[in-house]
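#struct-pred
JK: can someone run the complex with zinc ion? inputs below
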Amino acid sequence: MIRLFALLTLLSCSHYQLQEAQSEKEIPYRSLASEWKADIHYEGFSADDIKKVQGAVKIIKKIISSDEFRELVINYTFLDKKQFHENSGYSNEEIYQLILLGSETTGNRLANNTMDVELELYEDSSKTIGYTYPHTTRIWMNRKYFHNYTKAQVAGNLMHEWLHKLGFTHAVKWNKDREHSVPYAIGYLIEDLAVKLEL
Ligand SMILES: [Zn+2]
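RT: done, structure tokens with the ligand placed:
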């Protein structure tokens, strides 16, 4: 545990440090993946709603701890190259590391191995499933979708929104490449694995 903490401090996760750590093969993937966790604050959620999110988080934790998730992220291919669309200059390996390190841009890239978010449920008849802004830890979720979603869908949606917190973006309007952006691709990957593994 002390060793992990020291490594997390060491990898306080600027782009440069990530590359350096990668070349020295210092990142203890397995322990980071298995100890990854979420610290969530809730606004406007009933006890049952919270249970649903907790179920979704359990799914995300299980998937992140798996070798299959690592392989799928690291080998993700877009335009015949191992890369994501709109990757902010990060390689697949670095994107995987940012997820494990839980280094949100809103937390100055502090690597604490944790998804730190505030969730707020809101009422809206529009087709927006959820949204967030770059400089807040808060994620707004449309109650209409949240209530109809399965746990696997909530897991995919939460992961999608959290990837925005890690600094990744995508086109606002649909285009054929948008599903390969980091939030869409990894959000779908979580949902698909949850269904496949019957989580
Ligand atoms: Zn999005």
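RT: quick notes.
The beta strands are 37-43, 77-78, 81-82, 114-122, 130-132, 138-142.
The chain has nine helices and six strands.
JK: thanks, will look after standup
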